[in-house]
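Onboarding guide, step 5: your first structure request.
Type a short instruction followed by the sequence, for example:

Predict the 3D structure of this protein.
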Amino acid sequence: MKKYRVIWFDDEYKTRKKIRERAHLNDIELIGFDNAEEGIAALKTNIKNYDAALLDGLFYRNPTETGTPT
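The system replies with structure tokens like these:
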């Protein structure tokens, strides 16, 4: 069975354990980023390595941003 690689933009991806576990059980590898800067850089560098993208409505712009996500 094919394993899908999904880039995931979500400020809370580290705490979403149930989502990660469920994805793993369904042969989906979630590669999470809590900020746009790092996630977009990874996507630009390795776009062919991803099968899909998952976007939360709010996440950080850069790795130093804290507080309420934009």
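Each response can be followed by summary notes, for example: The longest strand covers residues 4-9.
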